[in-house]
Each structure stands twice: as C-alpha cells, then as structure tokens.
Fold:
Amino acid sequence: MKYYSLKHGSPPVDFRTATLLGQAPDRGLYFPEQVPVWSPSFLERCRQVPATEMAFEVMAPYVAGSMPDEVLHRVLTETLSFPIPLVRVTENISSLELFHGPTLAFKDIGARFMSRCLGYFAGQETGKVVVLVATSGDTGGAVANGFYNVPGVEVVILYPSGKVSLVQEKQLPALGGNIHALEVMGNFDDCQRMVKEAFADQALTEQVFLTSANSINVARWLPQQLYYILAWAQWKGTTPPVISVPSGNFGNICAGLLAWKSGLPVSHFIAACNVNDVVPRFLQGEGYHPKRALATLSNAMDVGDPSNFIRILELFDGNEPALRQMLSSESITDEDTEKTIETVYNEHGYTLDPHGAVGYLALQRYLQGHPAAKGYFLETAHPLKFPESVERLTKQSIPVPAQVVQVLKGEKKSIITGTDYTSLRDFLLRFR
Ligand SMILES: *Cc1c(COP(=O)(O)O)cnc(C)c1O
Structure:
C-alpha cells in the first residue's frame, strides 16, 4: 500500500516511511491510495474469530510491503491486549468502553500499535528513533506507556510543571527506562515552542532521528478502525448501529468512517463535539471556519481546527451531500454534559466521563428523531481521569482500576528543566 499527501506536493510513500515521517514533507496528511473492501463473509467471520485474527486481515493490506506477517501478528497481539466490551446502558444506547488499556484512554490503542511499528522500523536500519512530544496531559501518558521498553525507541516528553492532574503526572514519568519526562517550569505553550524549535533545528535533526508520534500519524490513525469491528462483532441489533464519537481532532471518527467505507454496517455517524463547534457548523451549511479553542470539561476535545477533518472530506471525494447523509454533528455545552453525567448515573447506574457524556447526549438527541434506531457511543476515557467533576456529579467515589493503583504508588521521576531551547537540545544530543 502506498500513501499520498493530501497536499499533493510530495511523492507517495510506503507505510514504513509514512510512519517514520508522520507528516509528508509538504506538510500534508498521508492517505492510503486504496481503501480495501471487505467481503460479507469476513464480517460474518469477525463474530467468531479472535480479535487479533480479524485485526490481521484488516491491517495487512495497509502495511503490505513494510512488515512481514509474523511481525504484524506480534504488533497486533500486543496492541489488543485488553478487553473492549460493548456495554448496554439503556434500551437503545450502549457504550463501547475503550478505556481498559494501561492509561485508561482510547489513545492507548493507536499509541501501542504505532510504538511497535516504529520500534520495528527503527531496529531495521534507522538506528535510534527519538519520539519527541509536548503534552498537556492525556496524549503523553498513552504515548509513554505505549513506547515503554520498545527497543530502539527513546521517548522525550515535555509537560508543564503543575498543570496536569495527579494521575497524569504520575503516569508520565513513572516509567523510566527509555521514557524521559521533562518537567518544564513553564506552560504548555512553552513546551510546544521548545518541541517546534527542535524539529526546525537542522544541526540537531542531522544527528538525531526525531519523530512526533502525534495523532495524524497513519500508524496511530488506521488501527482505530479495529474497535468499530469489535463492536460489530458484539452488536445484537436487527439494524446496523448509529455510532456517536466524541470528537476533537476527528481522527477517531475518521477511522470509523474508513471502516464503513470498507463495508462495515453502520446506519449513521454522529460527531459529538463540545462547544468547539467548527464541524457542527460546517455540516449545517455555515462554511468551515477554524476558531481558537475554548476550554471545556471534555478538554481532550478542545480543538478549534480539527486536523483530520480533511481526511473525512477525502473519503467522500469532496461530495458534501453524501457526507451529510452519513455524518451529522452535534455541539454539547458543559452544562448539558454535567446534567448527562448526573442523570445517566442516577437513572441507569452508569458512570460517564465528560467525553463519553458528550457522545451519549448527542446520540440520545439523534435517536429521539429516529425512534426505531439503536446505537452506541464511544466511551473514550475512564471517569477516573476526571475525578473532580464526575465524583461531584454522581456523589460516588470512583473505584481505582488495577492498572492505575500501581501508577499512583509509583515515584515521580521527572527531569526538571527551564523554558530555554538549549537545555532541550543538549538533552536530545545524547541520542546521537
Ligand atoms: C483525544 C481524545 C478524544 C478526541 O479524539 P479525536 O480522535 O481527536 O477526535 C476524545 N476523548 C478523549 C478522552 C480523548 O483523549
């Protein structure tokens, strides 16, 4: 499989190069040249075979030419190492729980797949690969955990001192080994600026192979379609599901649409957004106008210019009527998010996190207009990641899952650094 740049200014590359580069040299996002079409018998078989076998059939065409079968098998076994249950919440609404991974977030799946791919490619010939990321919290934990102990890969994570939650702060540096957490005595913008300077520093990048591991990387984007198929294998409805996806950068929902394009039965997709409503407005015909992101309770979705939306347009060949038929989008306020967490707990005994609550309410509103339909929403984070708001609204304390108990006991092992770029450069030069 080859991947072309959506800006059409760089040549097509294979999966390996797309993964190592992240973004095309012309700054475009990579997109697969063909979208495989699944046979009805494959979709039937998905209900019987183990998840890794299904995943192998889905991913093999995407990595073809870059990875032998046995490596892909190993990568997928290590990626899908935790349960992804579809849990019924009401008569019409189920929750696809994507938070049973090591950092309690759906990003674990993409991060684990990508980290194993990069580890394999680094081991081949490139030498050491240094993954450099700035994080305000959520992504960093999943990336750090995904790359932990992967040979040939060093991870350097910059995060603002005192600005991330306790669980996150412990998750980031607790690992050690090939994970280096730099606690920056500044804010998130300082972290991002330092990372950008490093990528732009040619004297550095000639000596150290830097890559970004961010969410536009095809190796993070493509494996996200797997859990839509796992949900289908658990779906008991007589008609295909309506699927509501809490969306920020739109990578997750774009992976769902990709699976649908390959043949996955889906009635309709809903992109559930908070008040950052660039896409809801676009789908209502108001044009595409990026905005500065507003801070909300569902902060992993505070995005004012979703980077993956362009991939969705590409999937539909720019055919906006066809897009609007398959995809609608709803904007949910913090006030309604809170009410939803409270009501769903009181009436159904199910604890939502703020992102899942946005997905739930958008789905519920859609189903009110389509009473014969049923659906599920993606629960993208464990409520424990947002204990302040969730415990206040449900008036219950959230039990701590086993994988986090260990983290909370761990020592914080960060390397404290200032906001000047030279200290980051000197740190990175050790990976020459
Ligand atoms: C990243 C994230 C999202 C948004 O996913 P996108 O692929 O960026 O749309 C939603 N919920 C949680 C908890 C996240 O961490």
